[in-house]
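Table S2 (text version). Query chain:
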Amino acid sequence: MRLLTFDLTDSSDDILTLEAMASTREAQHAAVMAEVAQVLAWAQAEFGGRQGPVEDGNAWDHELLVQHEAGGWITVTLTFSASAEFAEAFQAAFVSPEDD
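Corresponding structure-token output:
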């Protein structure tokens, strides 16, 4: 990933939050959305039958938000609710050690 940055947040209810975010100009927006598509394709391939509310026993769910900001900036936020298993596999696939 070149444009998306990742953040993991723990919670007390065993549901983790993984957030992938990028804020770019219009010229880079297609590249950001390609990275989003890559992450979602990975989630479907690795945990495809297990998408849905994590509190109901699923491995992951997601929300995608695209905001057009002042000055021509576009902020893309892909937020996952995740089980520990999904979060561990996600980090192994997308977060390099120097990102920690």
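Notes on Table S2: Residues 53 and 72 are 34 Å apart (CA to CA). Residues 26-47 form the longest helix (22 residues).
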